[in-house]
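WARN retry 2 of 3 for item q-0093 after timeout on previous attempt; input resubmitted unchanged.
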Amino acid sequence: MPAHRLIATLSRRSTAARLTLTSAALAAALAMPWATAQAQTVLNGTEFSVQGLVGVGRLAANLRDEHGETFGSISGLWANSASWTRNGNTYTGSFLAAPDRGYNIAGTIDYAPRLNSLQMVFTPAAIGASGLAQNQIGLSLTQATRLYETLPDGGQKFFTGLDPKPGGVATGGARAATATMPELPQSYNGKLALDAEGVVVLSDGSRLISDEYGPSVYRFAADGQFLGALAVAPSVRPVRNGVNDYSSNNPTVGQPAPSPANPSSGRANNQGFEGLSLSPDGKTLFVALQSAARQDIGTPAAATRDNTRLFTYDVSAPDNIQLSGEYVVKLPTFRQGGTTLVAAQSEVLALSSTQLLMLPRDSNGFQVGTQTSLLRQVEVIDISEATNILGQPYEQQVAPGGVLNPTIVPAEKVVLLDMLDKSQLKRFGLTNGVEAGFDNLSEKWEGLALLSALDPDRPNDYFLFVANDNDFATTDGFQAGGGYNDGKDIDTMFLAYRVTISAVPEPTTALMLLAGVAGLAMLSRGRRR
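OK item q-0093 returned
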């Protein structure tokens, strides 16, 4: 479905759009149901329902790209809706996927960040079918575009996954801001540091990639050339010893660790811009911290980092992008071993200029943690009534001691999808936790994409794709000139859910439509008599 159709569906301000979609929603409600929804919820005029899991696909853990290096899995995902087509019950389309900073179990490495192009062939399974293989989603890696900057002499220098050098600008751990460029994190070898976590494509074809180190938002041409970076609110710049210090305490072998280990304010280590998405009309960019900024965390830290920040940018003019909003989103908490923990978010997906999906999760999964996840879900977030804290006196610290300032209204949210539903997973031989005969889901799920079902009978139906980040885990790996063995193989995986997203009928409109339908029914009966 075209982007403008999705916007019309979700708009709370367009009366004409709501009337049109109300008719479609009512007709669908009066017709025989296509399927029994797994979950259904309403938020600020939009109704969401999950029909069920309809597809699974894998790429092998030891897959290598055209540069001979281990494929980086999915830290960020962007779907090319213009490529999405349907032929019978089979869909095809292309995606861009951003891997993160490279294999880094024993410290970060000089891995060249890149964007991977994927091709998908998808034949969804029937709702409720069981005993299914994990092959409905066919995936292939078609290209790996490494990211670079052009040097004054015309040469090229790749970006790097290495941790920025501690100390900021004074030590070479950052490049000083210029009239056209914000301050940017830099590694000890002089390369710009990038831990990529999200990707979108702007109207001019350039790519924006969100980064955990800065946190930063970089802009690249389609061929991978560095074009610039967006301004970032000072509230999330990491500060140590009174200066911006971008180290995430993941030094490469032989390089110093920062002191102190954690910033005093700004993004926490490895908790930068984890989520990035563009509204369907291409005008609003959403960027989200993985969890709360350091100054908004109390004691204990693990239980009080739930007030994360969501930023909006006006990207109507790609060459004049402006920071437009900053909002608080409350992350969910859960209990593990008697301890309260926060489920940090791993991705966002814009549905309109005010609504988006968010994917919070814990740190358990296949051969990681307890191996049984306690929280892994997709939520709907709405900022329509939330406080825009950008430029406000309390912007720097919104949650003293981890408690949200009572004058701040956080975003509204509801849970859309529980990814731990074993009844859905087991239809495809999957499960949550260690269970004989079933494949346990991996820990990190960090990609979201929404594409139309292209079903004329159900115009508000979509496929929600959720993809994992395998952390380059393979027993047969190769990166930055050397081989490695992680001790386990975690495949790249995609899950596909069929969902319905539609406007809720207004009470007066719904009554009028019902009256009209009733009148038509009576007229029809009269004619038959």
